[in-house]
Amino acid sequence: MTRPRVLSGIQPTADSFHLGNYLGAVRQWVALQEDHDAYYCVVDMHAITMGHDPGLLRRRTRIAAAQMIGAGLNPERCTLFVQSHVPEHAELTWILSCITGFGEASRMTQFKDKSAKGGSEQASVGLFTYPILQAADILLYQADQVPVGEDQRQHLELTRDLAQRFNHRFGPAFVLPDPYILAAVAKIADLQDPAIKMSKSGSAPQGIVDVLDDPAVIRRKVARAVTDTGSEVRADVENKPGVTNLLRIYSALTGEPIAAIEKSYGSAGYGTFKKDLAEIVAETFAPIRERTGQVLADEAALDKILADGAARASRAARETMTVVRDRIGFVPRLDP
Fold it and tell me: Residue ranges of the chain with pLDDT lower than 50?
């Protein structure tokens, strides 16, 4: 029986993944590799849309890949690679750009949000076409499902629209992917501002728990997490957003239902609850931190893993592009 194919990626824009990345993406990927044909990439091409330091990008790309392995991705059970190692990503992006309307692209909310911060005049064309590159990432591998957060749902809808449009105009070439969203951890909030999503771009350092943080730092950040009026440990999105966020994290890491956690702590107070949660987070990330360090210590072995992954990814990408080039009307290139 053919396993359904999944594709997802993560940007190498920081020295560590954070708790939201882990719960909303990486941990799901680890589970999916067991019963899916899984393709996971470090999307370094996406990471250059808003300016970057080349040396830092190179280092963070390896750190991202090492963390994925450290978190449990097995390169023998999934295809782990770096986006820029497969040039077909860029080729398909151009082709899809030519069937994407300008108005359609301009309605993407992430471009609006990110360009608003620096001003639209300073925003790059790459940032504008970012969702089209993301569509190419997905369609290139004929993914059946795409693990995404709620904030990426609009981009997946664009991907499906472009796939349908291409298939209709030029003939069948692409599988239409479906979202794979784990609603319970679709959004992990900032520890200092539970009204916003935990993110490297929007959160202050104290609002983020990094996977590679020292355990003492993790305990301190959780201890200082914003709570709410009263002392009862109870989920209430409107009146207790801070505690609700911590309950979601606790539940996601332990598998214990929120109702059971509420019952366990009741009116014990926030202090005891946060102390226990801090230990759970620290214990979860300690082995990942150790394993990541081991992977990074042998850079040649890591690069070999990524090269092997790129070779497998390239085979799938070439199959797709052979069909796409034929459908679009390009003259086939013959080897001399």
Answer: none
The whole-angstrom separation of Cα 324 and Cα 139 is: 11
The answer to whether residues 186 and 249 touch, using CB atoms and an 8 Å cutoff, is no
Alpha carbon distance 14, 200 (integer Å): 7
Q: Is the Cβ–Cβ distance between 71 and 307 less than 8 Å?
A: no
Per this entry, what is the length of the chain?
A: 336
- Quote the CA–CA distance of 123 and 111 in Å, as a whole number: 9
Tokens in use for 192? 């200092």
Query: Tokens standing for 72?
Result: 């449990």
Q: Are 50 and 114 in contact (CB under 8 A)?
A: yes
CA separation for the pair 147, 11 (Å, rounded): 15
Q: Which two tokens stand for residue 106?
A: 């301009």
Q: Each residue of 116-126: pLDDT tens digit?
A: 666 666 678 88
Positions annotated as catalytic residues are 114, 197, 200
Quote the CA–CA distance of 79 and 27 in Å, as a whole number: 16
Residue-level pLDDT at 184? 60
Neighbours of 147 (CB within 10 A): 24
Bridge partners of residue 10, in order along the sequence: 42
**Looking at residue 115, what is its pLDDT?**
60
Q: Which region holds residue 333: left if phi is over 0, alpha if psi is between -120 and 50, else beta?
A: beta
Q: Distance between CA 250 and CA 276 in Å, rounded? A: 9
Contact criterion met (CB below 8 Å) for 97 and 165:
no
Pick the closest to residue 277 from 301, 256, 303 (CA basis): 256
Phi, psi angles (nearest 5°) of residue 42: -85, 115
Q: Write out the two tokens for 333.
A: 């290139």
CB 80 within 8 A of CB 306: yes
Alpha carbon separation from 157 to 74, 154, 206, 220 (Å, rounded): 30, 5, 34, 40
